[in-house]
Amino acid sequence: MNGRLFVDDAPTYASATFPPPRSFQYAAHEALRAGRRAGHKNQLLMSPTGSGKTYLGLRIAHEALLKGRRALFLCDRVTLINQTSDTADRYGLSAHGVIQADHWRFNPDLPFQIASAQTLARRQWPAADVVIIDECHTQLTVWVEYIRTCPASVIGLSATPFSPGLGRLFSNLVNAATMHDLTESGVLVPMRVFSCVKTNMDGAATAGGEWTNAAAEERGMEIVGDVVSEWFKFGEGRKTIVFASTIRHCEELCRQFVEAGVMAATFTSLTMPDERRMLLNEYRKHDSSLRVLISVEALAKGFDAADVGCVVDCRPLRKSLSTAIQMWGRGLRSSPETGKLDCRLLDHSGNITRFLADYEHIFYNGLDALDAGEKLDKVIRKDDKEKKAIACPSCGYMPFGLRCMACGFAAQSAALVESLPGKMQEVVIGGKKLADDKRHLYAQLCTYARLYSAPDKQRGRAAHLFRKITLDWPPHDYVFEKTENVPIERNTLNRIKATNIAAAKGRANA
Fold it and tell me: Is the pLDDT of residue 423 over 50?
């Protein structure tokens, strides 16, 4: 039958409704069509966290289904099966089967199947004209050999296509969008980095260039108390994902969060399927009392909860930039309905500084070729004892390498920011003094608001500028009407201008 469906009562899928594609999603789909016309049977779509990989994959499947063909969407983990199935239902693609052990939606006769890679490894592949492989950088044996010779058109989806050998499996790379594009358009939120007490990895054992799990666990256990106490300072109230080095490390972090009165839970390979479903259902509620989920790997890829506002990185890495990007990306999705403005990264691992140069390149440019990511994940980053964190001299964002990921400023040099060992601080000044203290800063912002805002908007303008710069609202005893005008410092004015420009760009893109 060559994959076509010749059944009289087959679903037509014509009633499916998708949200209109964003411009970059439309362009990515067109690029994949052009690639297929050019003879590329196996193509890889690099699509950053938040760009809608599942949306794009299901749109591709829908296009095939409308033509009477069969489509298969392959998930690399059981965790993502129900998530993908639920999304397909929302788009009107309810007529699909699920190939997973004992799944209630098992129906091999339907032309659209969502399959677990682990289950397909034990069964025969269903007929398909289009195969969409989620998280294709995992390169599971079950599909690696299959796509070399199968007649189907194959689309691999990945936010981080860094694993070795992808260039031998796929012949065309399409960049859906860069993280910079998505941040500018409001699809992603800015990441605000907080420097923390770091895990001391001096002399820790390595294997293959990466720190061993045992070494990372042993060193990480030494600062568990700091992780919890500093979360109370800078993460409390935000839905949070914590990444640890091992399951034992996860369990100890969870124990101490719970002892401190925070509802937390581990989500690891030892978490049973029923418990996983229960935890995810609860955690996805906007008003959930479950505030902290702790994981090693299970939540790093493909997990969606847009209102996550804090990521705690306690998993030190030397090589795997892709793992770091996946972890940080869990908190970058925008969530307008909850008022989320940014994501706070509490860096206990040192990863943000270790990977800064390469992360900045990916943030602005994506990947240039299929093997470029593979090379990035082979490089061993060594800690430089003399190297200090650098903040953007224009807007104060930290860390700053060659080009600021907050405002886009590029410079040959920037002011150094001194670290304070054992203390947690947000580096936002970049070596340039804005004010003597927060009250002095607030007075400058009040002065600016009175100069440039209508009388009924001045108090709110000063408050919002204060929050943009400090990430907190003015304290209750900062009273606008009782705050006198003061001279506005040059660095403060520059920071206000950068904030205004970013807001204007956001409105224009919207």
Answer: no
